[in-house]
Amino acid sequence: xxxxxxxxxxxFGVVLGLFFAMWFFTGMVMIYVPFPSLxxxxxxxxxxxxxxxxxxxxxxxxxxxxGPEKTTGLRVISIQGRPAYVCNRxxxxxxxxxxxxxxxxxxxxEDAVTNRLQRFTSAPIDFIxxxxxxxxxxxxxxxxxxxxxxxxxxxVLGTQLYVSSRTGxxxxxxxxxLRFWNYLGAVAHWIxxxxxxxxxxIWDSVVWWLSGLGxxxxxxxxxxxxxxxxxxxxxxxxGLSSFRGWMKWHHVLGxxxxxxxxxxxxxxxxxxxxGRLFSMPEPTVDQVRAIQGAPFGEVVAGxxxxxxxxYQAARELTIHAFDRKARIVAKNSHGLLExxxxxxxxxxxxxxxxxxxxxxxxYSIVPxxxxxxxxxxxxxxxxxxxxxxxxxxxxxxxVDHQSGEVLSILxxxxxxxxxxxxxxxxxxxxxxxxxxPMWDAVMLILLFVGFVTSxxxxxxxxxxxxxxxF
Length: 470
What we know:
By secondary structure, the chain is an alpha+beta fold. It has helices spanning 2-32, 40-46, 59-66, 110-120, 176-183, 186-189, 194-197, 200-234, 245-270, 285-292, 296-300, 305-309, 344-354, 412-426, 438-469; strands at 71-79, 82-89, 95-98, 125-131, 148-153, 160-164, 170-174, 316-322, 325-332, 335-338, 360-365, 374-375, 378-379, 385-389, 396-399, 406-410. A hairpin with a 5-residue loop joins strand 2 (82-89) and strand 3 (95-98). Helix 9 runs antiparallel to helix 14 (412-426).
Protein backbone atom coordinates (compact mmCIF):
# COMPACT_ATOMS: atom_id res chain seq x y z
CA UNK A 1 0.00 0.00 0.00
CA UNK A 2 2.85 2.39 0.82
CA UNK A 3 4.38 1.74 -2.60
CA UNK A 4 1.04 2.44 -4.29
CA UNK A 5 0.58 5.69 -2.36
CA UNK A 6 4.14 6.72 -3.21
CA UNK A 7 3.57 6.01 -6.91
CA UNK A 8 0.28 7.98 -6.96
CA UNK A 9 1.66 10.95 -5.01
CA UNK A 10 4.76 11.07 -7.20
CA UNK A 11 2.93 11.16 -10.51
CA PHE A 12 0.04 13.31 -9.33
CA GLY A 13 2.78 15.69 -8.21
CA VAL A 14 4.49 15.60 -11.60
CA VAL A 15 1.22 16.60 -13.28
CA LEU A 16 -0.12 18.99 -10.63
CA GLY A 17 3.04 20.50 -9.11
CA LEU A 18 3.01 23.57 -11.32
CA PHE A 19 -0.68 24.07 -10.61
CA PHE A 20 -0.04 24.04 -6.86
CA ALA A 21 2.76 26.61 -7.11
CA MET A 22 0.70 28.71 -9.49
CA TRP A 23 -2.38 28.66 -7.21
CA PHE A 24 -0.37 29.96 -4.24
CA PHE A 25 1.50 32.63 -6.23
CA THR A 26 -1.59 33.92 -8.01
CA GLY A 27 -3.46 33.94 -4.71
CA MET A 28 -0.99 36.55 -3.45
CA VAL A 29 -1.66 38.69 -6.53
CA MET A 30 -5.43 38.42 -6.12
CA ILE A 31 -5.32 39.92 -2.64
CA TYR A 32 -4.53 43.28 -4.22
CA VAL A 33 -5.79 43.01 -7.81
CA PRO A 34 -9.24 41.40 -8.09
CA PHE A 35 -10.87 40.50 -11.38
CA PRO A 36 -12.19 43.63 -13.18
CA SER A 37 -15.77 44.57 -12.43
CA LEU A 38 -17.95 47.60 -12.97
CA UNK A 39 -19.47 49.33 -9.97
CA UNK A 40 -23.21 49.95 -9.84
CA UNK A 41 -22.52 53.68 -9.74
CA UNK A 42 -20.46 53.58 -12.93
CA UNK A 43 -23.08 51.47 -14.68
CA UNK A 44 -25.85 53.91 -13.77
CA UNK A 45 -23.78 57.00 -14.57
CA UNK A 46 -23.46 55.84 -18.18
CA UNK A 47 -27.23 55.51 -18.63
CA UNK A 48 -29.23 58.51 -19.78
CA UNK A 49 -32.20 59.80 -17.80
CA UNK A 50 -35.37 58.08 -18.98
CA UNK A 51 -37.86 60.45 -20.61
CA UNK A 52 -40.83 58.83 -18.88
CA UNK A 53 -43.22 61.38 -20.40
CA UNK A 54 -42.66 59.65 -23.74
CA UNK A 55 -43.79 56.23 -22.45
CA UNK A 56 -46.89 55.14 -24.35
CA UNK A 57 -46.74 51.35 -24.29
CA UNK A 58 -47.99 49.66 -21.08
CA UNK A 59 -45.63 47.11 -19.51
CA UNK A 60 -48.09 44.29 -20.22
CA UNK A 61 -47.81 44.90 -23.96
CA UNK A 62 -44.03 44.88 -23.76
CA UNK A 63 -44.14 41.50 -22.04
CA UNK A 64 -46.52 40.25 -24.73
CA UNK A 65 -43.90 41.15 -27.34
CA UNK A 66 -41.06 39.58 -25.33
CA GLY A 67 -43.02 36.40 -24.57
CA PRO A 68 -44.98 36.14 -21.29
CA GLU A 69 -44.02 32.51 -20.69
CA LYS A 70 -40.28 33.22 -20.58
CA THR A 71 -40.12 36.77 -19.22
CA THR A 72 -38.76 36.84 -15.66
CA GLY A 73 -37.94 40.52 -15.23
CA LEU A 74 -38.61 43.94 -16.73
CA ARG A 75 -36.65 47.20 -16.72
CA VAL A 76 -37.06 50.62 -18.28
CA ILE A 77 -33.97 52.45 -19.53
CA SER A 78 -33.14 54.96 -22.22
CA ILE A 79 -31.80 53.56 -25.49
CA GLN A 80 -30.64 56.14 -28.03
CA GLY A 81 -32.60 58.82 -26.20
CA ARG A 82 -35.86 56.85 -26.23
CA PRO A 83 -37.55 55.04 -23.30
CA ALA A 84 -37.37 51.29 -23.77
CA TYR A 85 -38.41 48.17 -21.92
CA VAL A 86 -35.73 45.52 -21.46
CA CYS A 87 -37.09 42.04 -20.82
CA ASN A 88 -35.06 39.47 -18.94
CA ARG A 89 -35.97 36.14 -20.44
CA UNK A 90 -35.26 32.73 -18.94
CA UNK A 91 -32.13 31.17 -20.52
CA UNK A 92 -32.19 33.71 -23.33
CA UNK A 93 -30.78 37.00 -24.55
CA UNK A 94 -32.34 40.24 -23.35
CA UNK A 95 -35.01 41.67 -25.60
CA UNK A 96 -35.74 45.40 -25.93
CA UNK A 97 -39.02 47.07 -26.86
CA UNK A 98 -39.29 50.84 -27.36
CA UNK A 99 -41.82 52.21 -24.89
CA UNK A 100 -42.86 55.07 -27.18
CA UNK A 101 -43.84 52.99 -30.22
CA UNK A 102 -43.78 49.31 -29.27
CA UNK A 103 -41.18 48.59 -31.95
CA UNK A 104 -38.48 46.05 -31.06
CA UNK A 105 -35.05 47.47 -30.29
CA UNK A 106 -32.64 46.57 -33.06
CA UNK A 107 -28.95 45.88 -32.34
CA UNK A 108 -27.08 49.15 -32.02
CA UNK A 109 -24.78 50.23 -34.80
CA GLU A 110 -21.22 51.26 -34.14
CA ASP A 111 -21.95 54.95 -34.76
CA ALA A 112 -24.65 55.02 -32.08
CA VAL A 113 -22.23 53.56 -29.53
CA THR A 114 -19.39 55.95 -30.37
CA ASN A 115 -21.70 58.98 -30.26
CA ARG A 116 -22.88 58.02 -26.77
CA LEU A 117 -19.34 57.34 -25.56
CA GLN A 118 -18.11 60.73 -26.74
CA ARG A 119 -20.65 62.32 -24.39
CA PHE A 120 -19.62 59.99 -21.57
CA THR A 121 -15.82 60.27 -21.71
CA SER A 122 -13.42 62.95 -22.84
CA ALA A 123 -10.79 60.44 -24.02
CA PRO A 124 -10.74 59.92 -27.79
CA ILE A 125 -11.60 56.50 -29.18
CA ASP A 126 -8.65 54.62 -30.63
CA PHE A 127 -10.37 51.47 -31.89
CA ILE A 128 -13.76 49.76 -31.66
CA UNK A 129 -14.65 46.18 -32.51
CA UNK A 130 -17.60 43.86 -31.98
CA UNK A 131 -16.95 40.77 -29.87
CA UNK A 132 -19.03 37.87 -28.62
CA UNK A 133 -16.52 36.75 -26.00
CA UNK A 134 -13.18 37.83 -24.66
CA UNK A 135 -11.25 37.35 -21.43
CA UNK A 136 -13.04 40.09 -19.48
CA UNK A 137 -16.66 39.35 -20.46
CA UNK A 138 -16.50 35.56 -20.53
CA UNK A 139 -18.64 34.99 -17.41
CA UNK A 140 -22.18 33.72 -17.97
CA UNK A 141 -23.69 36.79 -16.30
CA UNK A 142 -22.88 38.65 -19.53
CA UNK A 143 -24.65 36.12 -21.77
CA UNK A 144 -28.00 37.93 -21.94
CA UNK A 145 -26.34 41.09 -23.28
CA UNK A 146 -24.06 39.62 -25.96
CA UNK A 147 -22.53 40.63 -28.34
CA UNK A 148 -20.54 43.65 -27.15
CA UNK A 149 -18.63 46.54 -28.58
CA UNK A 150 -15.11 46.71 -27.16
CA UNK A 151 -13.87 50.28 -27.26
CA UNK A 152 -10.19 51.09 -26.78
CA UNK A 153 -9.56 54.64 -25.57
CA UNK A 154 -6.49 56.79 -26.24
CA UNK A 155 -5.57 57.41 -22.63
CA VAL A 156 -2.55 56.72 -20.44
CA LEU A 157 -4.34 53.85 -18.65
CA GLY A 158 -4.96 51.80 -21.77
CA THR A 159 -8.68 51.71 -20.98
CA GLN A 160 -11.05 49.33 -22.72
CA LEU A 161 -14.82 49.70 -22.32
CA TYR A 162 -17.53 47.17 -23.14
CA VAL A 163 -21.00 48.20 -24.28
CA SER A 164 -23.84 45.82 -25.10
CA SER A 165 -25.03 45.99 -28.69
CA ARG A 166 -28.47 44.81 -27.55
CA THR A 167 -29.27 47.53 -25.01
CA GLY A 168 -26.40 50.01 -25.22
CA UNK A 169 -25.49 49.43 -21.57
CA UNK A 170 -21.99 49.87 -20.19
CA UNK A 171 -21.01 46.54 -18.57
CA UNK A 172 -17.22 46.30 -18.12
CA UNK A 173 -14.05 48.36 -17.96
CA UNK A 174 -10.41 47.28 -17.86
CA UNK A 175 -7.04 49.01 -17.99
CA UNK A 176 -3.69 47.72 -19.23
CA UNK A 177 -2.48 47.38 -15.63
CA LEU A 178 -5.57 45.42 -14.58
CA ARG A 179 -5.26 43.13 -17.57
CA PHE A 180 -1.56 42.45 -16.92
CA TRP A 181 -1.97 41.66 -13.23
CA ASN A 182 -5.06 39.56 -13.81
CA TYR A 183 -3.20 37.31 -16.21
CA LEU A 184 -0.78 36.76 -13.31
CA GLY A 185 -3.66 36.52 -10.86
CA ALA A 186 -7.29 35.57 -11.38
CA VAL A 187 -7.04 34.28 -14.97
CA ALA A 188 -4.34 31.77 -14.06
CA HIS A 189 -5.76 31.01 -10.59
CA TRP A 190 -9.22 30.12 -11.90
CA ILE A 191 -7.83 28.40 -15.03
CA UNK A 192 -9.84 30.98 -16.91
CA UNK A 193 -8.70 31.16 -20.56
CA UNK A 194 -11.54 32.33 -22.77
CA UNK A 195 -11.59 29.25 -25.01
CA UNK A 196 -12.27 27.04 -21.98
CA UNK A 197 -14.29 29.35 -19.74
CA UNK A 198 -16.91 30.26 -22.35
CA UNK A 199 -18.05 26.62 -22.22
CA UNK A 200 -19.21 26.76 -18.60
CA UNK A 201 -20.02 23.07 -18.11
CA ILE A 202 -16.68 21.92 -19.54
CA TRP A 203 -14.69 24.47 -17.53
CA ASP A 204 -16.61 23.54 -14.37
CA SER A 205 -15.82 19.84 -14.77
CA VAL A 206 -12.17 20.39 -15.68
CA VAL A 207 -11.42 22.59 -12.66
CA TRP A 208 -13.52 20.44 -10.29
CA TRP A 209 -11.69 17.23 -11.16
CA LEU A 210 -8.28 18.86 -11.44
CA SER A 211 -8.53 20.41 -7.98
CA GLY A 212 -10.10 17.19 -6.68
CA LEU A 213 -7.02 15.26 -7.78
CA GLY A 214 -4.99 17.92 -6.04
CA UNK A 215 -6.81 17.13 -2.79
CA UNK A 216 -5.95 13.44 -3.18
CA UNK A 217 -2.31 14.33 -3.94
CA UNK A 218 -1.97 16.39 -0.74
CA UNK A 219 -3.65 13.77 1.46
CA UNK A 220 -1.30 11.13 0.11
CA UNK A 221 1.66 13.43 0.68
CA UNK A 222 0.72 14.07 4.30
CA UNK A 223 0.26 10.35 4.93
CA UNK A 224 3.60 9.49 3.33
CA UNK A 225 5.43 12.30 5.11
CA UNK A 226 4.18 11.21 8.53
CA UNK A 227 4.82 7.53 7.71
CA UNK A 228 8.47 8.24 6.82
CA UNK A 229 8.92 10.23 10.04
CA UNK A 230 7.44 7.37 12.09
CA UNK A 231 9.75 4.86 10.39
CA UNK A 232 12.70 7.13 11.14
CA UNK A 233 11.81 7.23 14.83
CA UNK A 234 11.27 3.47 14.99
CA UNK A 235 14.75 3.02 13.57
CA UNK A 236 16.07 5.16 16.42
CA UNK A 237 17.38 7.88 14.12
CA UNK A 238 17.34 11.60 14.85
CA GLY A 239 16.19 14.35 12.53
CA LEU A 240 13.00 14.87 10.55
CA SER A 241 13.88 13.16 7.28
CA SER A 242 16.07 10.43 5.90
CA PHE A 243 15.97 11.93 2.39
CA ARG A 244 18.57 14.15 0.81
CA GLY A 245 18.58 17.20 -1.40
CA TRP A 246 15.30 18.48 -2.76
CA MET A 247 13.42 15.45 -1.41
CA LYS A 248 14.54 16.33 2.12
CA TRP A 249 13.35 19.91 1.73
CA HIS A 250 10.04 18.71 0.31
CA HIS A 251 9.56 16.20 3.12
CA VAL A 252 10.44 18.57 5.98
CA LEU A 253 8.46 21.51 4.60
CA GLY A 254 5.51 19.22 3.91
CA UNK A 255 5.46 18.08 7.54
CA UNK A 256 5.01 21.69 8.67
CA UNK A 257 2.84 23.05 5.84
CA UNK A 258 0.85 19.98 4.75
CA UNK A 259 -2.30 20.95 6.64
CA UNK A 260 -2.08 24.54 5.40
CA UNK A 261 -1.84 23.33 1.81
CA UNK A 262 -4.63 20.82 2.36
CA UNK A 263 -6.99 23.45 3.79
CA UNK A 264 -6.44 25.73 0.79
CA UNK A 265 -6.74 23.02 -1.82
CA UNK A 266 -9.89 21.58 -0.24
CA UNK A 267 -11.51 25.01 0.11
CA UNK A 268 -10.51 25.90 -3.44
CA UNK A 269 -11.97 22.63 -4.67
CA UNK A 270 -15.20 23.44 -2.83
CA UNK A 271 -15.38 26.83 -4.54
CA UNK A 272 -16.25 24.77 -7.63
CA UNK A 273 -18.88 22.72 -5.81
CA UNK A 274 -21.88 24.31 -7.56
CA GLY A 275 -24.40 22.11 -5.79
CA ARG A 276 -22.50 18.83 -6.00
CA LEU A 277 -21.97 18.36 -2.25
CA PHE A 278 -23.58 21.42 -0.69
CA SER A 279 -26.83 23.26 -1.34
CA MET A 280 -26.96 26.37 -3.53
CA PRO A 281 -28.04 29.77 -2.18
CA GLU A 282 -30.15 30.71 -5.18
CA PRO A 283 -33.90 30.21 -4.75
CA THR A 284 -35.62 27.72 -7.03
CA VAL A 285 -38.07 28.81 -9.71
CA ASP A 286 -40.95 27.47 -7.59
CA GLN A 287 -39.76 29.40 -4.53
CA VAL A 288 -39.54 32.64 -6.53
CA ARG A 289 -43.01 32.14 -7.96
CA ALA A 290 -44.41 31.39 -4.51
CA ILE A 291 -43.08 34.72 -3.20
CA GLN A 292 -44.37 36.55 -6.27
CA GLY A 293 -47.81 35.06 -5.67
CA ALA A 294 -48.74 35.03 -9.36
CA PRO A 295 -47.04 34.75 -12.76
CA PHE A 296 -44.77 37.74 -13.39
CA GLY A 297 -46.73 38.81 -16.45
CA GLU A 298 -50.01 38.91 -14.53
CA VAL A 299 -48.52 41.09 -11.80
CA VAL A 300 -46.91 43.52 -14.26
CA ALA A 301 -50.21 43.82 -16.15
CA GLY A 302 -51.45 45.95 -13.27
CA UNK A 303 -48.79 48.64 -13.84
CA UNK A 304 -50.09 51.61 -15.78
CA UNK A 305 -48.20 54.02 -18.02
CA UNK A 306 -49.18 56.85 -15.66
CA UNK A 307 -47.47 55.10 -12.76
CA UNK A 308 -44.21 54.86 -14.70
CA UNK A 309 -44.43 58.50 -15.80
CA UNK A 310 -44.18 59.60 -12.16
CA TYR A 311 -40.46 58.82 -12.13
CA GLN A 312 -39.02 61.77 -14.02
CA ALA A 313 -35.40 61.72 -12.84
CA ALA A 314 -34.71 57.99 -13.08
CA ARG A 315 -32.01 56.38 -15.18
CA GLU A 316 -33.41 52.90 -14.59
CA LEU A 317 -36.74 51.54 -13.42
CA THR A 318 -37.00 47.88 -12.44
CA ILE A 319 -40.37 46.21 -11.98
CA HIS A 320 -40.67 43.39 -9.45
CA ALA A 321 -43.45 41.11 -8.29
CA PHE A 322 -44.14 40.48 -4.61
CA ASP A 323 -47.34 39.04 -3.15
CA ARG A 324 -49.28 39.63 -6.38
CA LYS A 325 -48.27 43.29 -6.37
CA ALA A 326 -45.85 45.14 -8.62
CA ARG A 327 -43.03 47.03 -6.95
CA ILE A 328 -41.01 49.63 -8.83
CA VAL A 329 -37.44 50.49 -7.85
CA ALA A 330 -36.15 53.73 -9.39
CA LYS A 331 -32.43 54.57 -9.60
CA ASN A 332 -30.55 57.65 -10.72
CA SER A 333 -26.81 58.14 -11.24
CA HIS A 334 -26.22 58.08 -7.47
CA GLY A 335 -28.12 54.86 -6.88
CA LEU A 336 -31.51 54.45 -5.29
CA LEU A 337 -33.98 57.21 -6.18
CA GLU A 338 -37.21 55.82 -4.83
CA UNK A 339 -38.48 52.51 -3.47
CA UNK A 340 -40.71 52.25 -0.39
CA UNK A 341 -39.43 49.73 2.15
CA UNK A 342 -41.36 46.58 2.96
CA UNK A 343 -42.30 46.04 6.58
CA UNK A 344 -40.63 42.92 8.00
CA UNK A 345 -43.95 41.78 9.50
CA UNK A 346 -45.61 41.93 6.08
CA UNK A 347 -42.71 40.05 4.46
CA UNK A 348 -42.97 37.40 7.18
CA UNK A 349 -46.67 36.89 6.42
CA UNK A 350 -45.97 36.50 2.69
CA UNK A 351 -43.09 34.06 3.21
CA UNK A 352 -45.14 32.09 5.72
CA UNK A 353 -47.88 31.64 3.11
CA UNK A 354 -45.34 30.84 0.35
CA UNK A 355 -43.65 28.14 2.47
CA UNK A 356 -46.62 26.41 4.16
CA UNK A 357 -44.54 23.32 4.98
CA UNK A 358 -42.34 25.39 7.32
CA UNK A 359 -43.25 28.08 9.80
CA UNK A 360 -41.19 31.14 10.66
CA UNK A 361 -39.20 30.92 13.86
CA UNK A 362 -38.21 34.58 13.81
CA TYR A 363 -37.41 37.44 11.45
CA SER A 364 -35.17 40.49 11.57
CA ILE A 365 -33.12 42.97 9.59
CA VAL A 366 -29.75 41.43 8.77
CA PRO A 367 -27.21 43.26 10.97
CA UNK A 368 -24.16 45.04 9.60
CA UNK A 369 -21.11 42.77 9.26
CA UNK A 370 -23.28 39.70 9.55
CA UNK A 371 -21.15 36.56 9.79
CA UNK A 372 -22.92 34.71 6.97
CA UNK A 373 -23.83 37.44 4.50
CA UNK A 374 -21.17 40.14 4.96
CA UNK A 375 -18.25 38.45 3.24
CA UNK A 376 -15.05 39.54 1.58
CA UNK A 377 -16.37 38.28 -1.75
CA UNK A 378 -19.66 40.18 -1.44
CA UNK A 379 -22.49 41.15 0.87
CA UNK A 380 -26.25 41.42 0.85
CA UNK A 381 -27.56 45.01 0.56
CA UNK A 382 -28.31 46.98 3.74
CA UNK A 383 -31.83 46.51 5.05
CA UNK A 384 -32.14 42.91 3.86
CA UNK A 385 -34.82 41.02 5.79
CA UNK A 386 -33.94 37.58 7.17
CA UNK A 387 -36.66 35.05 7.89
CA UNK A 388 -35.60 31.93 9.78
CA UNK A 389 -37.77 28.93 8.95
CA UNK A 390 -38.55 25.89 11.07
CA UNK A 391 -37.95 23.36 8.31
CA UNK A 392 -35.59 20.42 8.79
CA UNK A 393 -32.73 22.34 7.13
CA UNK A 394 -33.28 25.45 9.29
CA UNK A 395 -33.35 27.63 6.19
CA UNK A 396 -32.84 31.39 6.25
CA UNK A 397 -34.71 33.28 3.53
CA UNK A 398 -33.23 36.69 2.65
CA VAL A 399 -35.58 39.20 1.02
CA ASP A 400 -34.68 42.61 -0.38
CA HIS A 401 -36.64 45.16 1.60
CA GLN A 402 -37.26 47.35 -1.46
CA SER A 403 -37.89 45.05 -4.40
CA GLY A 404 -39.20 42.00 -2.52
CA GLU A 405 -36.76 39.81 -4.46
CA VAL A 406 -35.47 36.65 -2.76
CA LEU A 407 -31.73 37.30 -2.57
CA SER A 408 -30.60 33.99 -1.12
CA ILE A 409 -31.64 30.97 0.91
CA LEU A 410 -29.08 29.69 3.39
CA UNK A 411 -29.70 26.34 5.02
CA UNK A 412 -27.49 24.29 7.35
CA UNK A 413 -25.52 22.93 4.39
CA UNK A 414 -24.80 26.38 3.00
CA UNK A 415 -23.78 27.76 6.37
CA UNK A 416 -21.25 24.94 6.77
CA UNK A 417 -20.03 25.72 3.26
CA UNK A 418 -19.44 29.33 4.28
CA UNK A 419 -16.77 28.22 6.78
CA UNK A 420 -15.19 25.53 4.60
CA UNK A 421 -14.96 27.77 1.55
CA UNK A 422 -14.93 31.45 2.55
CA UNK A 423 -13.39 30.78 5.94
CA UNK A 424 -10.54 28.49 4.92
CA UNK A 425 -9.83 29.86 1.45
CA UNK A 426 -9.65 33.59 2.20
CA UNK A 427 -9.43 33.46 6.02
CA UNK A 428 -12.81 35.20 6.17
CA UNK A 429 -13.15 34.90 9.94
CA UNK A 430 -14.71 37.57 12.19
CA UNK A 431 -12.04 39.52 13.99
CA UNK A 432 -9.41 38.88 11.30
CA UNK A 433 -10.72 39.61 7.82
CA UNK A 434 -11.61 43.22 8.70
CA UNK A 435 -8.30 43.92 10.46
CA UNK A 436 -5.85 44.97 7.79
CA PRO A 437 -2.89 44.87 7.38
CA MET A 438 -2.87 42.02 9.91
CA TRP A 439 -5.07 39.90 7.62
CA ASP A 440 -2.73 40.68 4.69
CA ALA A 441 0.32 39.59 6.66
CA VAL A 442 -1.24 36.29 7.72
CA MET A 443 -2.45 35.56 4.19
CA LEU A 444 0.87 36.42 2.55
CA ILE A 445 2.92 34.36 5.00
CA LEU A 446 0.73 31.29 4.60
CA LEU A 447 0.54 31.64 0.82
CA PHE A 448 4.30 32.08 0.62
CA VAL A 449 5.09 28.93 2.63
CA GLY A 450 2.59 27.04 0.49
CA PHE A 451 4.30 28.36 -2.63
CA VAL A 452 7.77 27.37 -1.39
CA THR A 453 6.69 23.83 -0.47
CA SER A 454 4.92 23.43 -3.81
CA UNK A 455 7.97 24.73 -5.65
CA UNK A 456 10.13 21.97 -4.15
CA UNK A 457 7.57 19.52 -5.52
CA UNK A 458 7.84 21.16 -8.95
CA UNK A 459 11.63 20.68 -8.98
CA UNK A 460 11.32 17.03 -7.92
CA UNK A 461 8.58 16.43 -10.46
CA UNK A 462 10.57 17.94 -13.32
CA UNK A 463 13.58 15.83 -12.41
CA UNK A 464 11.43 12.69 -12.27
CA UNK A 465 9.76 13.45 -15.59
CA UNK A 466 13.12 14.20 -17.23
CA UNK A 467 14.65 10.91 -16.05
CA UNK A 468 11.58 8.93 -17.10
CA UNK A 469 10.80 10.40 -20.51
CA PHE A 470 14.08 11.85 -21.70
